[in-house]
Structure formats: C-alpha cells, structure tokens
Design brief:
Residues 3-98 form the HTH arsR-type domain. It comes from Streptomyces longisporus. It contains 5 helices and 5 strands. The chain is an alpha+beta fold. The protein has a 3-stranded antiparallel beta sheet. A two-stranded antiparallel ribbon has the order 1-2.
C-alpha cells in the first residue's frame, strides 16, 4: 500500500523511496546543499543524470522532493514533512510493540513454575 492518506504520501511510500541508498544520498545532498539540479547531483554520484532523474521522480512521488523550473533547468529541493510524519508513525508503531512486549513479560512473570 503506497497510496496517500489525507492527500499526503503514505508512510510505506516514504519508506520505499528511502530504501535505495542512492536516493538517500540524493536526499542528503539536497538537504545539505539547500537544493540542486539533476546534473549537479549526478556529478557527485556514481550514476548518470538520467538515473538521478528517475530517483528524483521516486522521491517526488513520496513527497520528499519538489522541483521548480528555473530557465532551462529544474532545481530540486528536499521537502521533509512526509519524513517527519513517517517518523511519528514509526514511533507510534514502536510504542505499540513496547506495550505488547511489556504485557507478554508481565504474563510470563505471573506464571510461576510448579
């Protein structure tokens, strides 16, 4: 399920986009540089500009990257709100599991061997 929730990318889409190491490098570069073109990103990566463009499209569908045309080039910038929402979702999931594990531990401690 990689659709949207309330018009925003679902956490699954964000996680899938971030599963690729090149896409993580691209996102890191956009955050640290404040934006870049696919050409400038490709110069620092072991992939072609066309591959970078495809990775940017995946990041864009996940809502993590936005592009704006400036003359003949498209300048991309990181948009981290979907990542922040995904982090909150993961934190809630982890808390749910912690509660379940605590309940199991409590049950195990109640049972005494005969």
């Amino acid at each position: 399920m990689t659709g949207t929730h309330d018009g925003e990318p679902a956490p699954e889409g964000v996680l899938l986009a971030l599963a690729d190491p090149i896409r993580r490098q691209i996102l890191n570069a956009l955050v640290s540089e404040g934006g870049a073109t696919s050409t400038s990103l490709a110069a620092a990566l072991p992939v072609t500009r066309q591959a970078v463009a495809k990775h940017l499209a995946v990041l864009g569908r996940a809502g993590l990257v936005r592009g704006h045309r400036t003359g003949r080039e498209v300048r991309y910038e990181a948009h981290l709100q979907p990542l922040e929402r995904t982090t909150r979702w993961l934190d809630a999931l982890a808390a749910q599991w912690d509660r379940r594990l605590d309940a199991i531990k409590g049950l195990a401690e109640q049972e005494e061997p005969s």
